[in-house]
Structure formats: structure tokens, C-alpha cells
């Protein structure tokens, strides 16, 4: 059942600023009301913040977010739903330009980030008929239960979770509405973007330099106490205008805790928070929402942290519809490719250019495998232009044959011609790079079903049902995800040095590799245990909330 009922004896909660009373926070006797974000943590854990706690949170807000100025936190930034040209059936909330001062250039930029504005201005929705048939996508606007899927652009991870939910919503006949709050043209979004950029920059620096810098960043992440949650709740009160104008009776599935906090503060009736990674911490939680978890160990650890069991539910890994639904069949196809000694297709997915030296050392270590045609490498550099430019220039310098693919049409044609049964020939290295952030995220999901092996940091992709070679982590919290994946048997251990990655690659690239065969067999067992069904369960839970189920 949905959480949110306050305990008898608690002081009556106050209404969320600017929002309708939250039904998930109603009292047992039917009294309406909801808690302000700053009060959520106290209500959630049954403890009061000390003067020191309040001072620390206030100082963080002043340093990180700054002053509100003359902005009215009760206003609503106008958003309108537009049809995505890349995923049939998906609606995307974008700023209503006629009601804002957004320039034409800014509008086009936002559209490209969200996958709404193709650079060539042509309709490119699933340009390949074969791809549309492969994915079995709907052909028009859906009439099912509307779901708001909220995300925050911080790297690829949160968008990938959102995309996974979108695919399952379409599969179940629901109508998904995607909103990226950082793509909204307003001062609150600009400030939140700076917070996200600071986090990404610090993660990149710590990963690149290691040593004392990484140790300090790791300590800050791993020892984030309950004040980190208080800060997120307080921040959400400032960001309420980003979602204030959306329908409060639509269930919200949050793929970043900020979305969950904002939705609870605005008074949405049903809020579901998808918790990322495998490192239990307070900052990943959303009081007042149902927090769905990717692993049983995460669930048990949160219980020891005094999180109410009624607010938690183990769901499984967050995986998009096609990859999860066909995981067993794809694993069997990979086994056959391995037994038939087919050249290995190897996908490297990179979110940014923070580990270029590691990547280059790794590729150089694979040179013999590339020269012998035993391995063919596909590298998705996402929408990071600097990484693509630097990588292709370096490949040219090293004399490695390669090809660069940059359009959605090229991606879809490639996917169709490179299914696991095909024997398409390729140059040693194929590099993908895109202008649209949405296409960049989606590309990895599409390419996964074409390859024998995925190399990735132990990020959200560590939870996907594909054999994996885990590269060095970005943030230290990702190491816990590496342990989860390795114990499930579908990946290597984390390779913190490029030399370790090359060593594991040589084992995986062997003809009839025992390690590769074992990973695929583990995936088949995990599928039968419903390990990869988390995103499906999230959508089922949201849909059920509209039928009188799952709500207090």
C-alpha cells in the first residue's frame, strides 16, 4: 500500500505550498493535509532537527542555491505536452513558449536535448520500418492511464531510468508524459542545473585523479547523513514551480529524488520514487512517496536506518521493455554466437570525457584483438562532442580504422542490420555521437541488443541483463552496484585499472569463452527470478493507484 498516513498523535500537517492536499499524506480519519518539504524528514523518521541541523541545511541552501529574490514559489511555470518524433506514443512536457520570454535559439536547443527538434527538421520517428516492427511500438496517442515520468538531466543515468519507464508504460497501454525539470526555461531550473553541474564535475575530477581527491569525495558521498535529505526536501520547495502546473491526479514516477520531493511538495496524489544504485543512503529517498528499490540488500539496509517499511518495496532492476522482455532470448542467441566462434561485438558506453586516458589505454590493450578481427568495438560517446572529436582524432593518429555515425537514421539502420543473428562486417571501431541527449541515451539501449558484451562504469547500466565488463567507477557509490552485478553472475568485477580491463577482455574474447557463456546462463536464471522487472513493476504500481489500489 502507499505510504503517507501520519501517525496518531502527530501534529496536523500543513498544506504543501501551492498544491492541493496530498492524499498520500492524509490522516487515518480522512483529514486532508500535507507536510511542507522542510517538515517531511521529521515526520518520516519521528525525530526533530536540532538547531545545528537547521543551520547546516540553511547554510547549504545559501551556498548552493542562493537567494530566491523576487520569485514567487507558488507560481506555476507553464508547460505543454508535445509529441516526441522519436518514440511513438510518448508525450513530452516542454515550456509553453508563448507564455515565456524564451528565445527561438533557446527553444531549439531545449528541443534537441529532449529529442523533440531534429536538426534537419524532418520527421524522423522510427525512420526504419523494420525498427518499428522490431520494437512493436504504438502508432498514435494512447487512451490509457496517464503517467508523469519525471527526470533530471545529470549524466545519462536518470534519463535512462525514465526511458525504461516510458517503454513499459507504452507496453501496458498507459499514456506517458516525460518531463525533465532542468529543460524548463526559468531561474529555478538554471540554479538547479548549476547544482547538477557541480556534482558531475566533482565526480569527474575524483575519478580522473584518484588519491586524496577521490577519498575526500568518497567520504562525502558515503557519509551523507540525514541532513542531505533535509537539504533535498528544502530545495524542492524552491523548485515547485517546475511541476506546479501539471495535473495533480496523474501518478508521478520519479527517476531522480528531486522529482519525488517536488511532486510531494506540490500535492500530487501518487508519487513513486525509483531508487538508483545499490548504495543505501538517506539522500536517495523521498518521504511521502513509495520508494521502490533495485535489490533486497538495499531494502534490508534501509530498515536498519529506521526507514518505515510501509514506504519501501523491492521491485528489481530498472530496465527498458525490449531489453528486459527479450533478455532470455538474447542470452540464448549470444550463447549460440559464442559456440559458433562468431567475432565478438563489444559496446563501450561512456557518459562523458572524464576517463579518456583509461579508455585509450584499454583500447590500445585490445589492439591485437581488433587487428585479428576477433573483436569489433562500438563506442557510444553520447552527446559529448569533445569526447567524440578527441577519440576519433586519436584513433586516426594510432592508425585504427573507424567510422563515425551521428544521426538517428544511421543508428536505427545500424540496429536493424546488426541483430544477434546477423553476420554484418564492420571496421575495427564504430563511434556514435549525437546532438540530442534523448537519442544519445536511447542509442545504448538499442545497441545493447546487437552486441555480445557491454563495457560500462558500474552505473545504472550495471543492472542491465547483458554480459558486462565493468570499468572504473565514476562516483565511489557505484562500486556497490558492481558488487550486485558480479554476484548475480552477469558481469566481471570492477576493473579499476585499464590493465585489469584488458585482462578480463582477453578472457571474454576467447573462442567459446567459458566466462562469457557463464554470464549468459546467469542472465537466463535471473530472468526467471524476475530480477530485471523493476520498471515494469513501477508502471504496474502507478496504474493500479488509479483503480483504488495502492493508496492509503
Keywords:
552 residues, alpha/beta, 8-stranded mixed sheet, 6-stranded parallel sheet, 11% strand, globular
Structure report:
This protein is an alpha/beta fold and 552 residues long. The longest helix is centred in the middle third of the chain and has 23 residues, at 187-209. It has an eight-stranded mixed sheet with strand order 1-2-4-3-5-6-7-8, with helices on both faces. Strands 11-12-10-9-13-14 form a six-stranded parallel sheet, sandwiched between helices. Helix 2 crosses helix 8, helix 5 packs across helix 21 (534-544) and helix 12 (327-339) runs antiparallel to helix 20. It has helices at residues 37-45, 51-65, 104-114, 129-135, 157-171, 187-209, 211-222, 226-239, 257-266, 296-304, 321-325, 327-339, 356-365, 367-371, 385-397, 408-417, 437-448, 478-488, 498-508, 514-528, 534-544; strands spanning 79-83, 91-95, 146-151, 175-180, 252-254, 271-274, 290-293, 312-314, 344-349, 375-380, 402-405, 429-432, 453-456, 468-470. Helix 5 (157-171) links the parallel strand 3 (146-151) and strand 4 (175-180). The protein is globular, with a radius of gyration of 23 Å.
Amino acid at each position: 500500500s502507499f505510504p503517507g498516513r501520519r501517525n496518531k498523535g502527530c501534529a496536523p500537517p500543513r498544506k504543501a505550498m501551492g498544491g492541493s492536499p496530498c492524499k498520500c499524506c492524509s490522516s487515518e480519519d480522512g483529514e486532508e493535509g500535507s507536510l511542507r518539504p522542510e517538515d517531511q524528514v521529521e515526520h518520516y523518521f519521528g525525530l526533530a532537527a536540532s538547531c545545528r541541523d537547521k543551520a547546516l541545511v540553511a547554510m547549504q541552501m545559501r551556498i548552493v542555491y542562493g537567494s530566491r529574490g523576487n520569485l514567487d514559489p507558488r507560481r506555476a511555470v507553464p508547460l505543454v505536452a508535445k509529441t516526441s518524433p522519436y518514440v511513438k506514443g510518448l508525450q513530452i512536457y516542454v515550456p509553453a513558449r508563448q507564455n515565456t520570454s524564451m528565445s527561438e535559439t533557446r527553444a531549439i536547443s531545449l528541443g534537441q536535448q529532449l529529442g523533440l527538434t531534429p536538426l534537419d527538421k524532418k520527421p524522423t520517428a522510427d525512420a526504419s520500418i523494420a525498427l518499428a516492427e522490431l520494437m512493436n511500438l504504438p502508432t498514435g496517442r494512447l487512451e490509457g492511464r496517464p503517467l508523469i515520468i519525471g527526470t533530471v538531466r545529470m549524466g545519462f543515468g536518470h534519463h535512462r531510468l525514465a526511458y525504461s519507464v516510458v517503454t513499459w508504460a507504452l507496453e501496458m497501454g498507459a499514456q506517458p508524459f516525460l518531463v525533465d525539470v532542468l529543460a524548463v526555461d526559468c531561474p529555478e531550473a538554471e540554479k538547479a542545473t548549476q547544482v547538477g553541474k557541480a556534482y558531475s564535475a566533482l565526480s569527474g575530477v575524483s575519478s580522473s585523479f584518484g588519491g586524496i581527491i577521490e577519498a575526500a569525495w568518497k567520504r562525502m558521498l558515503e557519509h551523507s547523513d540525514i541532513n542531505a535529505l533535509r537539504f533535498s526536501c528544502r530545495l524542492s520547495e524552491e523548485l515547485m514551480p517546475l511541476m506546479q502546473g501539471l495535473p495533480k491526479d496523474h501518478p508521478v514516477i520519479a527517476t531522480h529524488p528531486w522529482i519525488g520531493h517536488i511532486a510531494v511538495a506540490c500535492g500530487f496524489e501518487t508519487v513513486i520514487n525509483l531508487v538508483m544504485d545499490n548504495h543505501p543512503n538517506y539522500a536517495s529517498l523521498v518521504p511521502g512517496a513509495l520508494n521502490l528499490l533495485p535489490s533486497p540488500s538495499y531494502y534490508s539496509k534501509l530498515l536498519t536506518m529506521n526507514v518505515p517499511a510501509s514506504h519501501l518495496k523491492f521491485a528489481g532492476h530498472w530496465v527498458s521493455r525490449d531489453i528486459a522482455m527479450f533478455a532470455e532470448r538474447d542470452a540464448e542467441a549470444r550463447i549460440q554466437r559464442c559456440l559458433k566462434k562468431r567475432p565478438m561485438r563489444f559496446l563501450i558506453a561512456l557518459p562523458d570525457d572524464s576517463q579518456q586516458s583509461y579508455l585509450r589505454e584499454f583500447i590500445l590493450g585490445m589492439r591485437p584483438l581488433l587487428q585479428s578481427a576477433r573483436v569489433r568495438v562500438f563506442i557510444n560517446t553520447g552527446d559529448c562532442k569533445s569526447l567524440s572529436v578527441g577519440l576519433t582524432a586519436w584513433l586516426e593518429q594510432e592508425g585504427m580504422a573507424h567510422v563515425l555515425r551521428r544521426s538517428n537514421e544511421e543508428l536505427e539502420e545500424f540496429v536493424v542490420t546488426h541483430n544477434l543473428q546477423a553476420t554484418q562486417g564492420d571496421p575495427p571501431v564504430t563511434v556514435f555521437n549525437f546532438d540530442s541527449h534523448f537519442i544519445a541515451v536511447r542509442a545504448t539501449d538499442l545497441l545493447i541488443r546487437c552486441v555480445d558484451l557491454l563495457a560500462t562504469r558500474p552505473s545504472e547500466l550495471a543492472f542491465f541483463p547483458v554480459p558486462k565488463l565493468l570499468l572504473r567507477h565514476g562516483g565511489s557509490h557505484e562500486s556497490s552496484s558492481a558488487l550486485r552485478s558480479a554476484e548475480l553472475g552477469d558481469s566481471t568485477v570492477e576493473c579499476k585499472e585499464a590493465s585489469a580491463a584488458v585482462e578480463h577482455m582477453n578472457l571474454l574474447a576467447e573462442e567459446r569463452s567459458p566466462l562469457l557463456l557463464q554470464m549468459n546462463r546467469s542472465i537466463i536464471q535471473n530472468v526467471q527470478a524476475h530480477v530485471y522487472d523493476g520498471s515494469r513493476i513501477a508502471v504496474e504500481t502507478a496504474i493500479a493507484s488509479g483503480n483504488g489500489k495502492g493508496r492509503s
